[in-house]
Design brief:
The structure is a single chain. The chain is α+β, with helices and mostly antiparallel strands. The protein is built from 6 helices and 17 strands. The longest helix is centred in the middle third of the chain and has 11 residues. The protein is globular.
């Protein structure tokens, strides 16, 4: 398969929290683990309060979480990134990704990030205000020639005391209510919010049936494809080349059962697998139902 183009990230958010106590609502659903495609369609969403973040979300499924290495070298005219993480998942027809950048001066970092993340296809939709913080929401529409699907992506971003947050929300139906539900339940974290688990449990079970691309009506549609990063050892040894993977893009919206068919040393195969596990996509469809599909991925590494 041709590598899906890495899509730009920019993100997030709004407030309209349910006036329910955390003990009676959030903690109960926050401990529930989704393990099958049927659970993804359940009406119960999950409280999500990751450690060392300034937001509280209610999400349709547990995310995968990824922490990026932070460079010790940076330009003096740019704000230094202290931590970079993203949390992404799929449920109720919604692809969601929350990207977090921590900095001493997040407002300055915001300016740096926006300069390097310009997407000219974005159309402004509205300003969102919550807890005194103003966020901007944009919309764009994408067509996938590979899957013959068109989807709508909403991007919302804002700055808190210690972070810059970017949110990506994508749906196949432009008017899907899951977007408004996600935004209405997203808010700044309060002292009463207790930390929940930060990522999904294992989905490493082979589905009953995995189809090839030729056997499905619509192939899996990739929305978010993070790139792997060099390990220190691989950079020191100047490792270059290609890692090839075979994986199941499962009907529940997660990449599972990843097999390396071509490897590199010094942790580069593992880096590629981690990146693949965090791909976000709309599942393939056959006869109007989501199904699992075999996919191949290639990651090319060079130092130039």
């Amino acid at each position: 398969m041709t590598n899906p183009r890495k899509l730009r990230r920019l993100p997030l958010v709004f407030f309209a929290m349910l006036v329910l106590s955390q003990s009676s609502f959030g903690i109960d659903i926050g401990r529930r683990l989704l393990t099958s495609p049927d659970d993804q369609n359940n009406s119960s969403w999950l409280l999500f309060v990751p450690e060392d973040e300034e937001f509280t979300a209610v999400i349709p499924a547990w995310p995968t979480a990824r922490s990026y290495p932070v460079s010790t070298f940076y330009k003096t005219d740019r704000e230094r990134i202290l931590a970079h993480r993203d949390y992404g998942g799929y449920g109720s027809g919604l692809v969601f990704v929350i990207e977090s950048f921590k900095a001493e001066q997040p407002q300055r970092l915001w300016g740096d990030l926006l300069k390097s993340n310009v997407d000219r296809t974005l159309v402004f939709e509205r300003d969102i205000t919550f807890d005194g913080v103003v966020a901007r929401q944009y919309k764009s529409t994408y067509s996938s020639h590979y899957s013959n699907n068109t989807y709508t992506r909403r991007l919302v971003w804002f700055v808190t005391k210690e972070h810059v947050y970017f949110l990506t929300l994508a749906t196949l139906d432009e008017t899907d209510p899951a977007v408004d539900r996600f935004l209405s339940l997203f808010r700044l974290r309060s002292p009463q919010d207790r930390t929940t688990r930060s990522e999904a449990g294992s989905f490493e079970t082979i589905p009953d049936k995995v189809f090839t691309g030729n056997e499905v009506t619509h192939k899996a549609t990739v929305v978010w494809k993070p790139e792997p990063t060099y390990t220190e050892q691989a950079r020191a040894h100047r490792v270059v080349g290609t890692v090839a993977l075979k994986a199941v893009f499962a009907a529940n919206g997660y990449v599972t059962n990843i097999i390396a068919t071509q490897e590199l040393k010094d942790g580069m195969t593992e880096a590629a697998i981690e990146a693949a596990r965090n791909i976000r996509f709309f599942p393939a469809e056959k006869d109007g139902k989501p199904v699992s599909q075999w996919m191949t991925l290639e990651y090319n590494f060079n130092l130039f």
